Amino acid sequence: xYGKLYLPxxxxxxxxxxxxxxxxxxxxxxxxxxxxxxxxxxxxLWEGAVLQLSIKYTDEYNNIPPTVTFNTIPFHPNVDQNSxxxxxxxxxxxxxxxxxxxxxxxxxxxxxxxxxxxLENAVNVEAAExxxxxxxxYRQMVIQCVRTSQHPEGSLIQTNLSLxxxxxSLVQIKGFLNSN
Length: 180
Fold this sequence. Notes:
Largest sheet: 4 strands, antiparallel
Oligomer: single chain
Number of helices: 5
Radius of gyration: 17 Å
CATH superfamily: Ubiquitin Conjugating Enzyme
């Protein structure tokens, strides 16, 4: 008895997925390693954001979820500020994983997570506290993240070379907000 391997398929810029604001392509013809892009949902705080992610599958794909990390790490309650890992049940818990989920399903779930933070699943406590206690400052932080995600060479970006992540420094963002 052999299980069917559901290999991920490209989510191309010229396909209908672009309308949904998602894109993914394998890294150098390696179907186990992907680069993806998720745009913020329309009419949300994250509208206009262009966030890059890495998605890595293992040989055990179908039985365990891929490892998903933001390369452009947003300031968000459900995104680990150090690792860039999004907090989504089916990605965090292999028991919640359904091997039939597609790449586009994963990326769409990330879009929804960005627009609908769950404070009870917060991995970025500072972002969760800010959202709960000072929503106007949280909104300013998100707006700055959106602006910076559109221009990754912007001065508010710092690169963590060991992880390959781009991360907004909270101190830099607060300084920027105070100067405007």
